[in-house]
Write a structure and sequence with these properties.
Oligomer: heterodimer
Structural class of chain B: mainly alpha
Helix content of chain B: over 70%
Largest sheet of chain B: 2 strands, antiparallel
Number of helices of chain A: 8
CATH architecture of chain B: Orthogonal Bundle
Largest interface: A-B, 37 and 32 residues
Bound molecules: adenosine-5'-diphosphate, magnesium ion
CATH topology of chain B: ABC transporter involved in vitamin B12 uptake, BtuC
Largest sheet of chain A: 6 strands, mixed
Strand order of the largest sheet of chain B: 1-2
CATH superfamily of one domain in chain A: P-loop containing nucleotide triphosphate hydrolases
Order of helices and strands of chain A: EEEHEEHEHEEHHEHEEEHH
Strand order of the largest sheet of chain A: 6-9-10-3-11-12
Number of helices of chain B: 15
CATH architecture of one domain in chain A: 3-Layer(aba) Sandwich
Order of helices and strands of chain B: HHHHHHEHHHHHHEHHH
Number of strands of chain A: 12
Strand content of chain B: under 5%
Radius of gyration of chain B: 21 Å
Distance between the termini of chain B: 20 Å
Radius of gyration of chain A: 20 Å
Strand content of chain A: 25-35%
Distance between the termini of chain A: 33 Å
Number of domains of chain B: 1
Shape of chain A: globular
Structural class of chain A: alpha/beta
Number of strands of chain B: 2
Shape of chain B: globular
Chain lengths: 282, 348
């Protein structure tokens, strides 16, 4: 994966998605406090943070699975309210959830097309066009280089890596505008992980889809992302661009323990050394 | 050569049997039904497969099967409806009262009765998904509520139902007498409840396996969180299936009432609910959600009806058949759960 052939994002690249001051509590648990993120057209944004930082909750609000207590989502210039994941998918926001959202009792091809099934008319009845879905799924998975036994088998037959691949394939099949991947490398070995990172790098090269990539360990993603947001205790602690910040600097920030003050100090240091404004206030 | 990943070969004879059972779920219960029929045919010196007796067995099969296929759909979503026994009594009672009291044509009041069933299902569904009450509890509550309503309308009295042809002879009235040919309209009416149920079960098999609604029903029971995440409206799917259960229980009650030209507040009751669930379970549907068979529910209904009638015909006390039925349910449930668990471990 070389950075060289990746077109650089222009500074005036428009914002495609903005989540403003999102807060969310679950009973006594505060998951998010006033979190704001911005995603530019064609950008790959990595969302990094410890377990329980609120990453999954944030993107489940974006996908319409959760509803925020407060805050707004502006998508393609308009404020949107997704009542369910159905709404978000219909508007071109696809999500690969941490749990993958695969249905074990259904075949791979039904999993690929669930929620946007193909139909055919038989004697006036609207029936599933299984043959079409089977063929499309097989062709598409082959084209991505994903090795699976047969699209007819149920997904619980698949290895962790294969499951992850099917979930990713499902999410990019419809050419979404925004793609959200929640820890897509978690269940993968080194080789499989590299394959998924390669897929992401390919999408990034084309700059046609904007991606939010959640990762536990940002080491894996420095290569494939344009910007990194650190989420800590329900707040965005740092917003850094990978072109202005070196990997070593980021490592130092993370090693500082992700405490609010430590990050502020580290961020100030980065800012001073690069002279840029790529890092953010607390 | 791509290796089929994750599939181990069965090791023990028991596992091999489970593999066969799960691959041919309907076929294996069909074999059980056939063996039972042959057993009773031999044991009763040929009386079991006489047209008279068969009519009784298939009418019972129709009654249980119509409710059982709806339970199968609900059980696939991970829910259950125990109130069907009282919907079965209430809907035709209301139908007959409307017909007698207000002069509404029977066909029209039957539609009203079935709509009442749909409404009951809607209420069951909404209580279950909105207030997160387990359906096992919701529907025990509505069961008693509706049973209380139907017996208090007219002091538990059965009321004579009007006969309005051709409605009655199409929907359950038996015109068959031993002098009729079996291949006549009168002969056909001996089996109408069964034939209606057969039609509905085939339709539901199509719905389950070939429609988006069926796909989403399976998804809801198989992985409710995942299904929701990917945009399946799981609450709606559940509510619709409760409405189907209410409609089918009401329809079964209407057919039962036209058969006897009488609406009996005690026609359904808890026993009918349990017989329908027994049919669903014996037909190969477990309560774990995510899988089940519509065709199996009809075969299971036939097994329940055969056990009920066959043993009595052979001179046993009616209560003895419950021993066999109870045993059959427990064995079937153990098998269903084993098959489902094995499917989770290795696909067959
Ligand atoms: N459905 C839920 N109900 C209650 N608490 C939740 C729920 N989802 C997440 N949380 C809590 O919210 C916090 C953030 O969780 P999450 O968004 O999953 O973090 P991350 O994905 O960064 O590991 C955690 O404390 C978690 O326990
Ligand atoms: Mg998470």
């Amino acid at each position: 994966m070389s950075q060289k052939d990746i077109p650089v994002l222009k500074p005036d690249t428009p914002v495609i998605l903005e989540m403003n001051r999102i807060s969310k509590t679950f009973g006594a648990v505060t998951a998010l406090v006033d979190v704001s993120i911005k995603l530019h057209q064609g950008e790959v944004l990595a969302l990094v943070g410890d377990n329980g930082a609120g990453k999954s909750t944030l993107i489940k609000i974006l996908s319409g699975f959760h509803h925020p207590d407060s805050g707004t989502i502006v998508y393609q210039g308009k404020e949107v309210h997704f009542r369910s994941p159905r709404d978000a998918r219909a508007q071109g926001i696809e999500t690969v959830y941490q749990d993958l959202a695969l249905i074990n009792d259904l075949s791979i091809y039904h999993n690929m097309f669930i929620g946007r099934e193909y139909h055919k008319r038989v004697l006036g009845l609207k029936l599933l066009d299984n043959r079409k879905m089977r063929d499309l799924a097989q062709t598409y998975l082959n084209s991505l280089g994903i090795q699976i036994p047969s699209v007819n088998s149920t997904v619980d037959l698949l290895s962790g890596g294969q499951r992850q691949s099917v979930a990713v394939a499902r999410s990019i099949y419809s050419s979404p505008t925004v793609l959200v991947l929640d820890e897509p490398l978690a269940a993968l070995g080194v080789r499989e992980g590299a394959h998924v990172l390669g897929l992401i790098q390919n999408l990034r090269r084309q700059r046609s889809v904007s991606i939010i990539l959640i990762v536990h360990n940002y080491n894996q993603v420095f290569e494939v992302c344009d910007r990194i947001n650190f989420l800590h205790s329900g707040e965005i602690a740092l917003d850094a661009s990978t072109s202005d910040t070196s990997e070593e600097q980021l490592i130092r920030i993370v090693k500082s323990g992700l405490g609010r003050q430590a990050i502020a100090a580290a961020a100030a240091e980065v800012e001073a050394s690069t002279g840029s404004t790529s890092t953010n206030r607390l | 050569m791509p290796r089929r990943v994750g599939i181990a070969l069965p090791d023990t004879a028991f596992e091999r049997a489970l593999v066969i059972l799960s691959r041919y779920r309907e076929a294996s219960i069909a074999v059980v039904a056939l063996v039972l029929a042959i057993y009773f045919q031999v044991g009763s010196n040929g009386a079991f497969l006489s047209s008279q007796e068969l009519s009784v067995v298939l009418r019972d099969t129709g009654r249980f099967g119509l409710i059982a296929v709806a339970e199968v759909m609900l059980m696939i979503t991970g829910e259950i409806d125990l109130s069907v026994g009282s919907t079965f009594s209430l809907a035709p009672y209301v139908m007959v009262l409307m017909s007698i009291g207000w002069g509404v044509p029977l066909a029209l009041s039957a539609v009203a009765g079935i709509l009442l069933g749909v409404l009951i299902g809607l209420v069951n569904g909404i209580i279950t998904v909105r207030f997160r009450v387990p359906s096992l509890i919701t529907t025990v509550g509505t069961f008693f509520l509706l049973q209380g309503v139907v017996v208090s309308i007219y002091n538990s009295q059965p009321i004579v139902a009007p006969v309005q042809e051709p409605f009655n002879e199409i929907f359950g009235e038996n015109l068959y007498s031993p002098t009729d040919s079996l291949w006549s309209w009168h002969g056909l009416t001996a089996f109408t409840p069964f034939l209606w149920t057969l039609l509905v079960v085939l339709a539901m098999a199509l719905v389950l396996n070939r429609t988006t609604f069926g796909l989403h029903t399976i998804a809801t029971g198989s992985n409710i969180v995942g299904a929701r995440e990917i945009g399946v409206r799981t609450d709606r799917i559940k509510v619709y299936n409760f409405m189907i259960a209410g409609a089918f229980a009401a329809a079964a009650g209407v057919i039962n009432t036209t058969q006897f030209a009488s609406a009996d507040p005690l026609a359904g009751g808890p026993f009918l609910t349990l017989q329908a669930i027994a049919a669903a379970v014996i037909g190969g549907t477990s309560l774990l959600g995510g899988s089940g068979t519509a065709i199996g529910s009809l075969l299971g209904a036939f097994v329940v009806a055969t056990l009920n009638n066959g043993l009595v015909m052979m001179g046993a006390q009616a209560t003895v058949s419950d021993i066999y039925l109870g045993t059959a349910i427990v064995l079937a449930m153990i098998l269903n759960v084993q098959v489902d668990r094995m499917r989770a471990r290795r696909r067959v």
